[in-house]
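Researcher: Sequence of Deferrochelatase follows. Predict its structure.
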Amino acid sequence: MPDQSIPQSLPETRTPVDAAEGASSEPPSPERASEGLTRRRLLGTAGATGLALGAVGGAVGYTAAPSQATPLSSIGSGEAMFHVKHQPGITQGLQARGHLVAFDLAAGAGRKEAAALLRRWSETARRLMAGEATATGDTGVAQDAGPSSLTVTFGFGNSFFARTGLEKQRPVALDPLPEFSSDHLDKARSNGDLWVQIGANDALVAFHALRAIQKDAGEAAKVRWQMNGFNRTPGATAHPMTARNLMGQLDGTRNPKPADPDFDQRIFVPAQSTKDPAWMADGSYAVVRRIRMLLDDWEKLPVTAQEQVIGRRKADGAALSGGTETTAMDLEKTDANGDLVVPINAHARITRPDQNGGAAMLRRPFSYHDGIDPDGAPDAGLLFVCWQADPLRGFVTVQRKLDRGDALSKYIRHEASGLFAVPGGAAEGEYVGQRLLEA
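Model: Prediction complete. Tokens:
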């Protein structure tokens, strides 16, 4: 779990002032009328509808709603754009709820079926991210909510290219990840032909998108594995801050930021790449790992011992060498006994880019909790997702270093893994992956 932080800004995201101001004064087109109310329009009529419901429910303790339209909340109104240079769900801030799901193409399905599927998925993602209902068969699960910063991101696994006859278009960067000593991987929950990341700041909005994507797959693809995650809800703290993981640590203090001059170079494939196929221009590579935290063992450690493992103070994320969370770590500082203040095997020391030849990746994880084992241990940890222009230079370089002596390794276990090529965003009128599938 490298020591890097998620940016707090939300690039390529817009927030309407409120539902009343955002609603169009023009009459709906016949096409729009046939769709019925969108989620956003339904919110715009919440005041009038709520008044009627309040009157009916008054006898059982409901209070009448105001007669004026109720605006979307700040959380519900957040909207990420679908047609952008880089796919959504990469540079946006952490979302409160997430679903990761991998699909395998069905027997007999090939390039034609994959293209049709990505076309369906892209249209569904575009509509849902705009706060609209799906084109057909909408379940109504999220009809009362705004877009809630929903993002849907699509990627291709190594096996996808053989299944579709596109082996010559498979990036070298998609070669299988090497084995690591901390791996205890479940193959059934690893890799896959296709990968979808869904994130939103409302759990029902996220589930609605997951269900729609699954239904769209139809007979073309079947779910291989699916994982559910969560983060702190935006606005739950007094001010924006780095998120905490289930170990209670501030997790992600040194994440690269979009404002960094070399951010795009580290995270995204350049348009004129000499080693990546043209269809990957403006795309990125996602490494996905299900990392179980051995919380019973971790929580037995006193806070001072936990801080020695991480190399940072638990309370505020500051390096043990002093200062605040953002103060540069002094790797040479020693205590009165001449010992390094930040231990040589501390997680934060080992993952620093300047200790790994400049290797960096954009971490955008979710925590997870999948119940309690028979022995009482929680099945909980981190759905680690990181983005980089080159996974060999990013994730693999850092993980090899961690494999050789990270103090945190004793308290975590990598249980599932995947690597996916995530193409650039779809232009207006395009679907994600069109430049690959229709080349």
